[in-house]
Each structure stands twice: as C-alpha cells, then as structure tokens.
Amino acid sequence: MIWLIAKKDFLLNLTSPRFIIGFLLCVVIIPFTMIVSVDGYRNQRRVYEVDQAEVKKNWNEIKVYSAVRPVVVAEPQPLGIFTRGVSDNMGNQVNVRLGEYPLFPSGHAGTRDNPLLNAFFSIDFTTVIAILMSLLALVFSYDLFTREREEGTMKLVFSNGVGRVAFLAAKFTGLFITLVPILAFSFVLSILIIVLSPGVAFSPSDWTGVVLLFGAALIYLVVFILLGMLISALSKKSSTAIVVSLLAWVWLLFLVPDMAYYGAQSLSKAVPYDNVAFSLDEVDRAFEKATDERWEKVQKEMALDGIGHWNWNGGRDGYDEMYGCVYETYEFHRRLNTWREPERLASADKKWVYQKEWLDGLIKQENLRKVLSWLSPAEMFRQVASSLCHTSPSSYLAYMDQVRRYRESLVRYFESKKLFESYTYFTQQDPATFLTIEQMNQMERDGFFDTQNFKVPEHWDSEYYKPLNLSDVPVFVYQQPGALATLGSAMGLIAALLGVAIVVLIAVIAAFMKYDVR
Amino acid sequence: MLKAIELSKRYEDGHLALDSLNLEIKPGEIFFLLGANGAGKTTTINLFLNFIEPSSGSLFINDIDVVKSPLETKKYVSFVSENVMLYGNFSARQNLDFFARLGGKTTLTKTDYYNVMRSVGLQEEAFERKLKTFSKGMRQKVGLAIAIIKDADNVILDEPTSGLDPKSASELMQILVNLRNKGKSILMCTHDIFRAKAVADRVGIMKEGRLVMLRNREEFMQDDLEKIYLHYMQEAVMFDDINVIA
C-alpha cells in the first residue's frame, strides 16, 4: 500500500514541471559552482606551493639559531571545494615566534587574486545544496495533502483501506525517492568534476568526508520534506501553503543566520582588538625597556664603553647574526640573550593572557552564533558540512592549537639545547677565532687586516658559513583528524539535525491525524 | 449492507449536521438521499467513509462497525464523489490501475480495465489519454469505473450527476441499475429528483440533519415525489426566509 502510493507520487513528480526545473537547476548550478570552487582550490594550492617553497628555501639558508622562526603554511583542504567555511577569511601562513603566541594565520586568504573581484558573489557546493534542496523539498511538499484534497483524490484514497500513518509514510517515501536522485545526481556531478580536474587529489579520508556530507545532506533534505509536509498538513489551501512555505524558506535560509550573527555580536560583546593591541604594545614596550636596562647592566658588568659590531644583522623576535666581532661583543650578546630570550618567552606568556581573553570572547561569540542559528536547519547543515570538510571555525581553532603546541615544542628544543646561552644562537664563528679588543687593535696595527678598506679575514663574512643542519629541530606536521574523529566532531550537530527531523515528524503526524480529508 | 443507527454529528462549532439518523440499505437496493444543501447528506457519506467521527450513534457496513474497524469496512465500499479530478498526469487506465490496486485488486489486466471503461461508456481513444485532457463527464465516468472495478458490496455516490450532460447522467443511472442487479447496496446523495424517480428503490429526504421522509418506490410513485420534495424544500426556503428576516 505504502509503496503503491509512493510509486504513484514518484511517477507523477517525475513528469511534473517542478522536477524538470529542479533537475535543470542542478545541472546548471552545480557544475558552475564546482568549477569555480575547484579553480579557487587550485589557486590556493598554487599559492601554498609557492609559499611552501619559499619557506623551505629560507629554512635551508638559516645560519644561526636565532633565525629559527618557522613559518607554517597551511595546506588548503581539498574538501574546502565542497564547503569553504571560514577559509576565505583566514590567511594561509602562521609565523611561529618566541615573542608571541600564534593566534590566527596571516598572509594569502582564500580569496581571488584580484581583491576588487571579491565583491563577486560566489557560493560553494554546500550552500547551493542547502538553498536548492530546501527549496525543492518545500516546492514539492507544500501541496502534498492540499492538492490531493483540492482534487478530491484524498477522499477517494481514504475510501479504500488506507490508514493515515500509512498514507503519511507513502507520501514521504514518494517525495524522498523523487528528491534523492536529484541530490545524488548533484553529488555525482561534483565528484566527476573533481575526478576530472587536474591538480585536485582526494585522499581516502576526503572521500569518506564526501560520503558523510552526502549523509548529512540526506538528513537535511528529510527535515525540509517534513517541514513542507507539516505546512501542508496545517493548511487548507495550496495557495496558503505555498506562501507559508516560501516565507519559512526565506526565514530559515536567510534571516535566521543573519539574525544569529547580529544577535551573537549584540548579546556577547568581545573585547575590541584595539584594546588588546594596546595591551600587547604595553607588554612589548616593557620588554624593550627591560632589555635596554639589561643592555646597560651587562655593559657595566663587563666594563665596556660600547658594543661594536663588524658584521651584524638583527631583526624582530630576537634574530641576531654577527661575524667578525670582538670577543667582548659576542660575550655581551651571549649574556644578554641568556636573560633576554627567556624574558621574551615570559613576555609572550603575558601577552597570551590578553590574546586568550580576546580569543575566548570571539569563541564565545561564535558559539552563541552557532546555537542561535540552530533555529535554522540550513545553518545546522552548513555547520555539519564545514565541520566534515575541516573548514569550520573549530577546525581552524584546532589547527592553531596545534601550531601553538608546536611553538612550545620548539621552545623546549631551544631550552634543552641551551641555545639561548650559546654563541651559535647568533654566530657560527668559531669561539677559538674570537679576538679581544686589544688583540683586534694589535692585529689591525700589524696589518693583518684593514677594516677601513674592508680587507678582513674571510670568516668574518656570513657567506663563509654553511647553513645550519636543522634536521633535529622540530617541524610542524599538521595532524588532520581522521574520518572517525571528524565524524565524532560533527556527530553532535548531525544528532541535532536528526532531532529536528524527529520533532517535525511528530508534529506532522499530530497535524495529519487531525487533518480534514473532506 | 449499509446501516446507521441513531447517528448524529455535531461539529466543533456546535452545528448539528445530523440528528439521529436511522437508515438501512439492503443488498440489491438503490437508495436516493435527497435534500437541500446543508441538509446532512454529505455528512452521512463522510460518516460512512469514516472521514469524520460520529458524535453519537453507530454505523455498519456489512455488519462491521465503521468506527471500530474503519479500514476493514472500507474493503466493502466503493465511493464516487462529485467533481473528482483524479490524477491529471496519469491516463484513465493508470488512474484505474492505481485505485484498483489500492482497493486490493492486484491481478487485473489491461483488458479488465478496458472492459470496465467500456462498460461506463468511455470512448476507446480516451483509455490511454492523460486525464487532464478529459471533460468533467469523462472524468466522472472514470470515477465510476474506479468504483465498479473495486467490486465492493456497497457503492456510495455523492452528487455523481452534478455537471453531467443528460446522456451521461442516463448512462450512469443504467450502470447503477446493473450494479443493483448484481446485488450491490447503493447509496446516492443527490438533488436530482428525476433520476431518483427513474431508478431508486427507496428515497429519503433530509432536512436540517434529520431524515424527514422515507418512501419506497411504490409509495413515492403514488404520492408524486416532486410534490413531496418541493413541499419539504419550500418549507426549507420559507424557514430560511424567516431566519433572514429575523
């Protein structure tokens, strides 16, 4: 009985203009969206490869440990083709410094090369599915009962031995088997485009993600079919049902996410970043002041009139590289670094308190936005999708946690090797070749070298030295969560989406039990 | 057999649509239920088909309680409604096939469907045509074919001649006679007093939810059914006028 009615509905749906229009929409929109997304991914991949090569080149040229300030380049997520999530807002590089905890990536974001083109409206596969499938589900289901009632067929059906629950199950099945092929076709089309696109490689874990995404899309489809059925069961006329359905669609797809966004910002105020930046500057200034004081103190302790350098390169975050200096200068820097670099780490810890407070505020806002947007199944689906595709805010936060842990391992490496207290932190010159001021002056007088005319020993030049062997320095390896862990992180939302489906199903049954079939 | 005992229906708005109806339609009998709009005819049908629940009283189809075993009773009843659109994108045969299977007839062949469609006077060329191209009369014939093919013991018809041309209406009446001759109990609600005179075995007139008159063929032929009907309708019109004035 259920299959008979479902098959009838399926056959009628297949020949209906709405099915043809829905199918054509998928045929046109899905490839377009996927081609744009694949192109965007390949662009990100190209940028990643260029950046990675540059980072590797710089890494291989490091000659002193104070230059060991790794740059982590985030590899674009292939599944981002399906769901871009927040990847468009995030950069692709993280500078790992001693003086600061990494907070967010910087550098090239997942945007187009031409920033002026960012105004161009482009949506990803998940958004297309969220919009299209919800619209199709409502367009097919809004008159599921009202049409049968208006055309008198409902009375005819119920004049036979058809129970209401069986009828409901049949109507649902008929619609489900009508829309699932459209959804499946969209996924198959996307997969084909991915498989046929050069430069796009999906791992088995990525394919598992696609399968899970399809599962989530099925649940999402069911929610909207049931929602349409509920509207139909509560309406007496198809004309009323279509208006209510479209209003519900606009509300759930567009208004709720925006309201959640503004609601979260209004209800949970995050500390303005300007305040945080000011506090960070304060800490930095205190650190610089303390460094200046320590400079003078060490200078006094060593009874030096001044610190002279022959060949000195310095930069941010403790980078110092020097050659051809006198022993006193090297020793001065060694003593300074022995105090300064741990102090730099302590300063980073102080700044982290402010950064963490700000970050917690942002996370709180984001969590609130998430919860508020659960009023929309579309937003729930998007959250599930971005979680499965590793492009959710949580995925980025987890990534940054890993980078911060990597920084800690790097710090431990520096400390365990006592690099801050070593000359190799800032020079490769052999301490046996260090000359005291007096020795240096005597040798210059004796004509061994002429600093005025740059006639100096070759080991005073940085080009004389080979890059350091950094093979034992920790490198960042992103531990991407496996399929099971990904499913686990999305499971709560999937369960919530299923919960919505069950609640709406109960409401549909309750409404249809009272439905006047006459 | 269709039977109603002290059957009443009061809607949620308080309107008493049916008041203590007692009715029994035996096998091989055509019963015409006449009355003005709102007299309670369709409510009676809706109760027999369990589209609505009675406020009191009981109904039986083939001695099975409609309220207690609604799905069971529907095996023994066919229904022809007024203005049924059926499924426009299905052909007449496909509609017939769907409803026949729904009614439990799963072994019928295309020839069976064609024969039934022929028996209700549908043109051969229309058998495989989509129903959305059909006239109202043709759709009504398909509706009747659906009722016939179920081959239930009881047939309930709600204003089936409404909008039909006289020829089609006559053909429909002939089909009802044939069904009666096969031993079916037929309950037909209509305004069409002339068709009632032509084929009904018994006639009941309803007014304001009550069965105010019940006559068998001999009685209503003798008493002039038009006169009796008009008499009751006149009262109803006068009653309505008084209500309007009040």
Q: What is the CATH architecture descriptor of chain B?
A: 3-Layer(aba) Sandwich
Task: Using a beta-carbon cutoff below 8 angstroms, give the protein chain pair with the largest interface and the number of residues from each chain.
Answer: A-B, 24 and 33 residues
Q: Count up the helices of chain A.
A: 14
Mean pLDDT of chain B: 86
Rounded Rg of chain B? 18 Å
List the quaternary state of the chains.
heterodimer
What general form of chain B does the structure show? Answer: globular
What report would you give on this structure?
The complex is a heterodimer of chains A (518) and B (246). By secondary structure, chain A is mostly helical. Chain A has helices at 2-14, 17-60, 125-141, 146-150, 153-158, 164-196, 204-234, 238-267, 273-301, 327-372, 377-388, 393-416, 437-445, 483-513; strands at residues 71-73, 93-95, 311-314, 320-323. In chain A, the strands form two sheets. Chain A has a two-stranded antiparallel ribbon with strand order 1-2. The longest helix of chain A is centred in the last third of the chain and has 46 residues, at 327-372. Chain B has one domain: P-loop containing nucleotide triphosphate hydrolases (Rossmann fold, 3-Layer(aba) Sandwich). Helices cover 40% and strands 25% of the residues of chain B. In chain B, a hairpin with a 5-residue loop joins strand 1 and strand 2. The longest helix of chain B is centred in the last third of the chain and has 21 residues, at 225-245. Classes of the chains: A mainly alpha (518), B alpha/beta (246). The A-B interface holds A 1, 4-5, 8, 11-12, 15-16, 150-153, 155-163, 516-518 and B 42, 46, 49-52, 71-72, 74-75, 77-79, 81-90, 98-99, 101-104, 143, 146, 150, 156.
Secondary-structure map:
The complex is a heterodimer of chains A (518) and B (246).
Chain A: H1 2-14, H2 17-60, E1 71-73, E2 93-95, H3 125-141, H4 146-150, H5 153-158, H6 164-196, H7 204-234, H8 238-267, H9 273-301, E3 311-314, E4 320-323, H10 327-372, H11 377-388, H12 393-416, H13 437-445, H14 483-513
Helix pairs in contact in A: 1-6, 2-3, 2-6, 3-6, 3-7, 3-8, 3-11, 6-7, 7-8, 7-11, 7-14, 8-10, 9-10, 11-14
Chain B: E1 2-10, E2 16-25, E3 29-35, H1 41-48, E4 56-61, E5 64-65, H2 70-73, E6 77-80, H3 92-102, H4 110-119, H5 136-150, E7 154-158, H6 166-181, E8 185-190, H7 193-199, E9 202-207, E10 210-216, H8 217-223, H9 225-245
Parallel strand pairs in B: 3-8, 3-9, 6-7, 7-8
Antiparallel strand pairs in B: 1-2, 1-4, 4-5, 9-10
Helix pairs in contact in B: 3-4, 3-5, 4-5
